[in-house]
Amino acid sequence: MENRHKQAQVATIIGMAVNILLAVLKLIGGMLGNSRALIADAVHSASDVLSSLAVLIGIRASRKPPDEEHPYGHGKSENVATLIIAILLIVVGFEIIYNSVRSLVSGSVGSETTLIALYIIIFSVVVKEALFQYKYRLGSRIKSPALIADAWHHRSDAISSLVALAGIGLTIVGSSFNIPALAYLDPIASAVIAIIIMYMGYQLGKEAVSVSLEVVLNEEETEDMREAVLAVDKVRNIDNLSARSHGSYVIIDIKIAVDAKMTVEEGHHVAREVKQLLMRQFEEVQDVNVHVNPY
């Protein structure tokens, strides 16, 4: 578990450093290259820095051991961080789309977008997709919802950069061939980016709220756990098994049936064996509450 947190923190810090670099590059490129779409993308990259900071805080908070107020630990801290990311995405998206629509209505669109904006956006797409692949695979392997959410934030940035690429490219074409109408594609691309950002925020927020309400794993997801418990000597049946998600880990409540003539001490030994087996065999299991019933 300790190694898991270290890996997540390293990945988050790397993401923050890259996002700061990209945000600065895009902002400068958007201003020099006269591109609203690239400036909007710079804001998106800047929001990535804040979201990564929220993830880092959430990961560190989730490491705290259980206490009287939080007997099941602080695993949901990561989901709180995910919810913060979601809200941030929606707010940022709304701000960008508002500015884009205002620009279109007023007709204040540029027509001299330069190639520097195009080069920067291509570089951004490559870097952001690489970050997505790195964080998503690591987050899936160590079962970190906040890291996976941050990975999708990188993917949304890569997608928005592709939209900006199309808008910037067509605007440059319009400028080269004297087609003024194509200049409107840059703020339109900015508005599309905003919609993508807001949709991603909605999806992440819905997932974070769902986990915070303690989603119970379905039978298919707990099938391996059931088989492992039934293989334990002297366990006659599983009367009930409930595996609850607490962010990056799972808490199991299980009722097992043993021989009715078994002593209390023998039943206790079987229960302890079941608990140790589940926690040893399934890395995501943080704690197991075992109740023993007569068969």
From TrEMBL:
Membrane spanning residue stretches: 12-32, 38-59, 80-101, 113-131, 158-177, 183-202
UniProt main location, coarse: membrane
Record's keyword annotation contains Transmembrane: yes
Top-rank lineage group of the source organism: Bacteria
Domain Cation efflux protein cytoplasmic: residue ranges: 217-295
Pfam families: Cation_efflux (PF01545), ZT_dimer (PF16916)
InterPro entries, alphabetized: Cation_efflux, Cation_efflux_CTD, Cation_efflux_CTD_sf, Cation_efflux_TM, Cation_efflux_TMD_sf, CDF_Transporter
Domain Cation efflux protein transmembrane: from-to ranges: 13-210
SUPFAM superfamilies, sorted: Cation efflux protein cytoplasmic domain-like (SSF160240), Cation efflux protein transmembrane domain-like (SSF161111)
Keywords: Membrane, Transmembrane, Transmembrane helix, Transport
Subcellular location, record wording: Membrane
Bilayer topology term: Multi-pass membrane protein
Transferase found in the keyword field: no
Family the entry assigns: Belongs to the cation diffusion facilitator (CDF) transporter (TC 2.A.4) family.
Protein name per UniProt: Cation diffusion facilitator family transporter
Organism of origin: Salinicoccus siamensis
Higher taxonomy: Bacteria, Bacillati, Bacillota, Bacilli, Bacillales
